[in-house]
Design brief:
The chain has 150 residues and is mainly α. It has one domain (2-147). It has helices at 2-14, 20-43, 52-56, 59-92, 105-108, 110-135, 139-147. The radius of gyration is 20 Å and the shape is elongated. The two termini are 26 Å apart. The chain crosses the membrane at residues 25-42, 63-85, 105-124. Belongs to the TRAP transporter small permease family.
Length: 150
């Protein structure tokens, strides 16, 4: 993306002949990168969190909060990203991007792909919470690892 953007700047300001395909490519690439990065952050448990409530809770309530957060991710990923994203893909697959000539559905495909990854990572996070609870690990430590800000 950096190389393509650099070429866009060179072609626009030095050659006075801007390339429209590079601008569209970077825009679509940024959309895909953002969506995949969101899934990655969920997998690394590095999402933004407000810890005011979680710091005051103990043991079972803290575990419940961690589970509610992960189930919230599951719900959002399943309904909004996978279901809604799949609908957006099917509705826009016939539309062709002006510069690259690719179906716009490929751009929107980043939603369901990222949604599946978030669904997977949230499921793993829930299983880890339950497993650590059964093994007797301190709830404060495991839930703090789930909802901390990195």
């Amino acid at each position: 993306m950096v190389a393509v953007t650099a070429w866009q700047v060179i072609s626009r300001f030095i050659l006075n002949n801007p390339s429209t395909a590079t601008e569209e490519f970077v825009r679509f690439g940024l959309i895909w990168l953002s969506m995949l990065a969101a899934a990655y952050v969920v997998g690394r448990k590095g999402h933004i969190a407000i810890t005011l409530l979680s710091e005051k809770l103990k043991d079972g309530k803290k575990l419940a909060l961690g589970l509610v957060i992960q189930f919230g991710f599951l719900f959002f990923a399943a309904i909004i990203m996978i279901y809604g994203g799949s609908r957006a893909v099917s509705l826009t697959m016939a539309q062709i991007s002006p510069s690259l000539g690719i179906p716009m559905g490929l751009v929107y495909l980043s939603l369901p792909v990222s949604g599946v990854l978030i669904l997977f990572y949230s499921s793993v996070n829930i299983l880890e919470l339950v497993k650590e609870k059964k093994e007797g690990a301190p709830i404060e430590t495991q839930v703090d690892n789930q909802i901390k800000i990195n």
